Queue: 2 jobs
Job 1
Amino acid sequence: MSVRIAPSLLAADFTRLGEELRAIEAAGADWLHLDIMDGHFVPNISYGPALVKALRPLSAMPFDVHLMIEPADPYLEAFADAGADVISVHVEAGPHIHRSLQAIRKLGKKAGVVLCPATPASSIEYLMDLVDLVLVMTVNPGFGGQSFIQNQLPKISAIRRMIEASGRDIALEVDGGVTASTAPLCLEAGADVLVAGTAVFGAKDYAAAIAALRGGR
Ligand SMILES: O=C(CO)[C@H](O)[C@H](O)COP(=O)(O)O
């Protein structure tokens, strides 16, 4: 299974975002992960579609937009227009997740569903035909630099089994506290996309940090 590394912009130097984006791409990053926070669904505020749009011309990497916002539906079009390739919504962020996922697909984008650490794998059982990506949060969303919640590993494995059973091409992404030490556990459990903020942007050598996360895969 190929591994894709998606550095999270949240940990980049905000005074040099264009340079940071070019640096991670040159260092071998596969995707750019963009964390959108609303100060309501999560206790933090990050940035919005205007930033996604400003960065879009600077990179050919797929833009992986993680919406930590409630409600999400009124903003899907703005992120699609801004240049997102994948748009992910939280299963906990609204009563009609099927509608949100269908709306993302209708905008011509890949649809992702995200689970907070306390949310069981079974919550997405009836969504497998509507998603192109499942994102398992291994921290409670809202902040970078938190510790990896180890008990999410069986959930990652359970979702890998659900994906295999679906027969569909669905990416399995992990986000939160992913480092060179925790990355192999995530890959062993069945993840194939790793989001890392601190472990990449906090490193002196981005290429070495990304290679360490990939672990030779
Ligand atoms: O979604 C997020 C926070 O809600 C971040 O993507 C995530 O926490 C990455 O940061 P780090 O790698 O430093 O843990």
Note: Strands lie at 4-7, 32-37, 63-68, 86-90, 110-115, 133-137, 171-175, 193-196.
Job 2
Amino acid sequence: MFGKRKKKAVPAAVCAVIVAAGSSRRMGGENKLLLPLGDVPVLAHTLAAFEKCADVRDIVLVCREQDIVPYTELARTFGISKLRTVTRGGGSRTASVLAGVNAAPEDTALVAVHDGARPLVSEAVISEAVYAAAAHGAAAPVVPVKDSIKRIENGVIAADVPRDTLAAVQTPQVFARPLLLRALNEAARQGQAYTDDCAAVEALGQPVYATHGSYENIKITTPEDIAVAEALLQKEEI
Ligand SMILES: Nc1ccn([C@@H]2O[C@H](COP(=O)(O)OP(=O)(O)OP(=O)(O)O)[C@@H](O)[C@H]2O)c(=O)n1
Ligand SMILES: C[C@](O)(CO)[C@H](O)COP(=O)(O)O
């Protein structure tokens, strides 16, 4: 599943774009990024992970207009010194990521796009993706799927899909900035809204390298994810 790597290149000027402009629909509408995880909000964990990672120089936070002031205050409270700007997102993930990339410092070489809703990302997962993108231009963490996979048609199993080459992709997805800008602008031009950013880069015919994700790097999407994240957090603290 994981290909051959070029020699490690030192990553330069890496900006994390944390997208946090979603609507938490599947959580029932309450802002999931402000739900407490341990003693602090989900988003504070996410920001702290990138603050801690030595391979990331800057952070740009993308959110809804009404959250700009509270999120700026949240970042100040939790000592996020790498935060450069908090900017307004768009109606689709692709639009939000594009807003974040455009707001990154001008000399940014690599952009690490990360879901605000993935608070348990580790330094190892971030760094491996950053180094792979420094060497290859595009990289994303993946985990092999654990279940058997079926295609369902009209409520009935229609086909079995062999899982040995299947993986679930996570974030941070890291790209050379010009490549990501080209991919997102092309997606916007075509009116394409992708669920992840690799898809926009793949659509240009560019390879995206698979790095090691983690089963703990979960995305907070539905209510039971909070209970799972709490358990994972406690395990880390033991
Ligand atoms: N227009 C959007 C949509 C999503 N996101 C961000 O992308 C990440 C992954 O999206 P998801 O988990 O789907 O978040 P929501 O869009 O909030 O969830 P839902 O689809 O249930 O409304 C989240 O951190 C979310 O805030 C964003 O910045 N802008
Ligand atoms: C980017 C992502 O987290 C990769 O798994 C995922 O595609 C986001 O999807 P969502 O539909 O916005 O939750």
Note: The chain has one domain: 14-237.
